[in-house]
Amino acid sequence: MERSRVYVDSREGRNKKLIEELRKFEDLEVLIRALPTDMLLSGERGVVLIERKTISDFISSVEDRRIWSQVKALK
Prior knowledge:
The protein is of the alpha+beta class. 35% of the residues lie in helices and 29% in strands.
């Protein structure tokens, strides 16, 4: 069975706690790369893109309508 990989955007990679928590999963390889989104999870079943948001950032994204360009980028 192939290990799944999570690619973490280099800006998110500064979050040491996030990286430490991800590395606790033995069957998950954690790689830091420049990405257009916060994280990309790649495994046997395909690819999942993840955009992390705080509540205030989410509200701000909706108010200034940039949420739609972010959703489009994930699509």
